[in-house]
């Protein structure tokens, strides 16, 4: 246990110098007397609430419960508003700004008199961004997920946000439903605060945070509006104070075993392909090697146990009532797939956290001998079209397409794709190719990877085709979509050399993706290729373009991912 005078914040408040006097005076200006905060851990609450983020619209209220827990445990809470990264509204993509939030989180934690942090996020990029920044700052830290929204409803159908949006949008394009149905769907799809209630990127990453040991047990699946979510917020506020006194820093919890367990859990959930990029970036901040090869290796040993859309039948609310993440992880533990002796934010080991976990519905969380799929839901591909790798969520694709050879139909950008998809000659055997959707080409690697199928094919009952891009796709999406092709086309990766009519061979069981064009022809095309002009000429975009890494390296900034320490600020 550390003593009050050993608190980091004591350096701001505890001396007799001019600056100490000023800090105490200004704290009085805030309406606090010295006995309310002196000698108490200062807890930063980094809150991604905003008026334009429906996933986080309840977090301003939840922050009050966190504060209540901090005060009850003898701490001093300080709330900081940080970038909200609304997946729905921020363009071209909040992925462009993930690293900006990570920088903001790190520098706030470093530059203020803070002893510990509660991170409040959930909408896709906020979870990895906050954890990346907190990992670099290395203070005692606990993560409070926003929680999934309630299930949607339309007539007699249960809706899953994202997944059913794509499905019914295709139905409309196929002429199966009209404006009245779409109006009703619009009102029923998202009916409460919280993140997507499918196993999209939000629930994938909040589950990864819990699997890492950075959230209280069971946190990831609690619906946003459930009273248990209020209690979670207060309990997290109480727990972080104890973590400060015990000096349980985030670096004491994160280890190679923790990241292996997070990957295992994500794969068993049938989680989002975006987790590959985010977990690699997060592990890099902890100086823990994690690569595409690790994902593919672990995927071959992990069954998919969560029967949740888009790769299954149920939603996050069902998952919560079935026992949530502890129940699923207990089944992974029974297969010896987890490291149960590692520490977590609860103060107990992972094994102790899972000791009393029970599965209440075997169809939602499958028994290990009756999995949704025998292997993890993500496969990593290599070949002459993806020398540095690509990924596919094959559990969400039509099985007939997992081995497929077909002629390419190439689009040079998203705008061209949308303008021409119903004009070009496309058959069900065609391979749709989108380039200039990567980290630099997008810019920011937008979620364009679920390329639209032409209307006439939809009308004829075709609902899946092989689609290849250097972009990402929403974790709520589905289909035979090959994503994250690296290096990206914008920097001259092989995707830049594909021409309409070229044959492309996808073989997911063999983990290969190849352009069937001879090397001499590819060399001629490469010699004729010219780099495109920069997307940005100034500002944050220029900084991003100069320093972002490729998808297989996590798309972090090279100067943030590298080793090295920053000095502690001098409060005087």
Textual characterization of the structure:
The chain has helices at 10-13, 18-29, 34-37, 59-72, 98-111, 126-137, 163-173, 179-188, 201-212, 227-245, 250-253, 256-268, 274-285, 292-299, 316-321, 324-334, 350-354, 414-420, 455-459, 519-528, 539-547, 558-561, and strands at 42-47, 76-81, 116-121, 141-145, 152-154, 157-159, 379-383, 386-392, 403-411, 431-434, 466-469, 481-486, 503-507, 512-515. It is an alpha/beta fold. The chain folds into four domains: 1-39, no CATH class; 40-150 and 192-354, Rossmann fold (3-Layer(aba) Sandwich), CATH 3.40.50; 153-188, no CATH class; 379-528, IlvD/EDD C-terminal domain-like (Glucose Oxidase, domain 1), CATH 3.50.30. It has an eight-stranded mixed β-sheet with strand order 7-8-12-11-10-9-13-14. Strand 13 and strand 14 form a beta hairpin.
What secondary-structure arrangement, pairings included, does this model have?
Layout: H1 10-13, H2 18-29, H3 34-37, E1 42-47, H4 59-72, E2 76-81, H5 98-111, E3 116-121, H6 126-137, E4 141-145, E5 152-154, E6 157-159, H7 163-173, H8 179-188, H9 201-212, H10 227-245, H11 250-253, H12 256-268, H13 274-285, H14 292-299, H15 316-321, H16 324-334, H17 350-354, E7 379-383, E8 386-392, E9 403-411, H18 414-420, E10 431-434, H19 455-459, E11 466-469, E12 481-486, E13 503-507, E14 512-515, H20 519-528, H21 539-547, H22 558-561
Parallel strand pairs: 1-2, 1-3, 3-4, 9-10, 10-11, 11-12
Antiparallel strand pairs: 5-6, 7-8, 8-12, 9-13, 13-14
Helix pairs in contact: 4-10, 5-6, 6-13, 9-12, 9-13, 12-13, 12-14
């Amino acid at each position: 246990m550390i003593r009050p005078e050993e608190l980091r914040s004591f350096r701001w408040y505890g001396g007799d110098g001019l600056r100490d006097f000023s800090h105490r005076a200004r704290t009085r200006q805030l309406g606090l007397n010295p006995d309310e905060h002196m000698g108490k851990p200062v807890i930063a609450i980094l809150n991604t609430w905003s008026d334009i983020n429906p996933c986080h619209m309840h977090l301003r209220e939840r922050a009050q419960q966190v504060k209540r827990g901090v005060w009850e445990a003898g701490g001093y809470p300080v709330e900081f508003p940080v970038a909200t990264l609304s997946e729905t509204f921020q363009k071209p993509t909040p992925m462009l700004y993930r690293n900006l939030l990570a920088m903001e989180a790190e520098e706030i934690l470093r530059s203020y008199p803070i002893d510990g942090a509660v991170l409040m996020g959930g909408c896709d990029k906020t979870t990895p961004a906050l954890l990346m920044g907190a990992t670099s700052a290395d203070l005692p830290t606990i993560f409070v997920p926003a929680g999934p929204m309630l299930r949607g409803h339309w007539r007699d159908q249960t809706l899953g946000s994202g997944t059913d949006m794509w499905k019914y949008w295709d139905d409309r394009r196929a002429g199966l439903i009209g404006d009245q149905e779409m109006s009703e769907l619009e009102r029923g799809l998202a009916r409460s605060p919280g993140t997507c209630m499918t196993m999209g990127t939000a629930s994938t990453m909040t589950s990864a945070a819990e699997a890492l040991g950075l959230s209280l047990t069971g946190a990831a699946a609690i619906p946003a509006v459930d009273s248990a979510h209020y209690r979670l917020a207060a309990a997290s506020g109480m727990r972080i104070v104890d973590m400060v006194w015990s000096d349980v820093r985030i670096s004491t919890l994160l280890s190679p075993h923790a990241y292996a367990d997070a990957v295992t859990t994500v794969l068993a959930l049938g989680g989002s392909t975006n987790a590959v990029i985010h977990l690699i970036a997060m592990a890099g901040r902890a100086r823990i090697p994690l690569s595409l090869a690790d994902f593919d290796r672990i995927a071959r040993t992990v069954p998919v146990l969560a029967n949740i859309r888009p790769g299954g039948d149920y939603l996050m609310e069902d998952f919560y009532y079935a026992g949530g993440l502890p129940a699923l992880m207990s089944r992974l533990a029974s297969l010896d797939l987890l490291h149960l002796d590692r520490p977590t934010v609860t103060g107990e080991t992972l094994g102790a956290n899972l000791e009393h976990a029970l599965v209440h519905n075997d169809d939602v969380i499958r028994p290990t001998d009756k999995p949704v799929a025998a292997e993890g839901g993500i496969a990593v591909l290599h070949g002459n079209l993806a020398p540095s790798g690509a990924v596919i969520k094959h559990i969400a694709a039509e099985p007939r397409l997992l081995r497929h050879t077909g002629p390419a139909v190439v689009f040079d950008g998203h705008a061209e794709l949308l303008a021409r998809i119903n004009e070009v000659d496309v058959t069900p055997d065609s391979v749709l190719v989108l380039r200039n959707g990567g980290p630099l080409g997008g810019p920011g690697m937008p979620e364009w990877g679920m390329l639209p199928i032409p209307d006439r094919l939809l009308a004829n009952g075709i609902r899946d085709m092989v689609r290849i891009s250097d972009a990402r796709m929403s974790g709520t999406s589905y289909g035979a979509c090959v994503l994250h092709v690296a290096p990206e086309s914008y920097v001259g990766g092989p995707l830049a050399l594909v021409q309409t009519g070229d044959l492309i061979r996808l073989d997911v069981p063999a983990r290969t993706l190849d352009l069937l064009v001879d090397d001499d022809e590819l060399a001629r095309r490469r010699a004729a290729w010219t780099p495109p002009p920069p997307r940005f000429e100034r500002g944050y975009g220029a900084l991003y373009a100069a320093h972002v890494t490729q998808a297989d390296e996590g798309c972090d900034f090279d100067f943030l991912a590298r080793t090295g320490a920053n000095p502690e600020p001098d409060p005087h």
